[in-house]
Amino acid sequence: xxxxxxxxxxxxxxxxxxxxxxxxxxxxxxxxxxxxxxxxxxxxxxxxxxxxxxxxxxxxxxxxxxxxxxxxxxxxxxxxxxxxxxxxxxxxxxxxxxxxxxxxxxxxxxx
Amino acid sequence: xxxxxxxxxxxxxxxxxxxxxxxxxxxxxxxxxxxxxxxxxxxxxxxxxxxxxxxxxxxxxxxxxxxxxxxxxxxxxxxxxxxxxxxxxxxxxxxxxxxxxxxxxxxxxxxxx
Lengths: 111, 113
Prior knowledge:
Chain A is an all-beta fold. In chain A, 0% of the residues lie in helices and 56% in strands.
C-alpha cells in the first residue's frame, strides 16, 4: 500500500530563511506526488505536483520540490520564507485516482 | 481548472440529527471524492463517488453512516447521519481533473453538540 510520511508536525523559521518541509513516500510503482497548502479556515490549494516528468518541480508562491527516487523523497523548499507562508502543508500521493495524505506540517514564520 | 462550490460552509448540529453537504462542480467530472479532516488531523478519504454507480467506501466508513448521492456528472452530496460529537470535522469534496490534478472544495466545518 502506498503511504506518505511527513517528518516534523511543526516547523518554525524566521522570515527570509530557507523553508524545508520533508516528505517521504512508499510506493511499489512510480507515484504521482503532490504538495497542498491549507491556510487557516480555508480549503486545500495545490502548490505543485510531480507526474514523472522533470524531477525538480516548480510550484506557486516560490515553492519547489525535488523528486528523489533513490531516497523516496519529495521535500518542499522555498529559499526565503514570507510571513504569508504560515500555513499547514500536506504531502500526498495518488495511487488509484484518489489522494493519500501525510499528517501535515504546520509552518510558522517568525518576524 | 474546475471551480467547486461546497455548502454549507459551516454548521452546528444537534447530536442524533443528520446533515447533507452539497458539492457542485462547474464542469463534468467522472470521479468525485469525499474526505474528512478531524481537528488537528490530516485528510482521510471517506468514499469515491462515480455517477451511475454506488459509492465505494474506504475501510472504517459505511454507507449507513455516510450515504452519498451522485445524480449527475457535476453534483454530489454527502450525508452525515445520526451525528455524534465525534463527527465534528471538516468535510471536503474533491474532483480529479485531466492531468492528475485534484481540486478541492472549501470544506464544510461541522460541529456536533
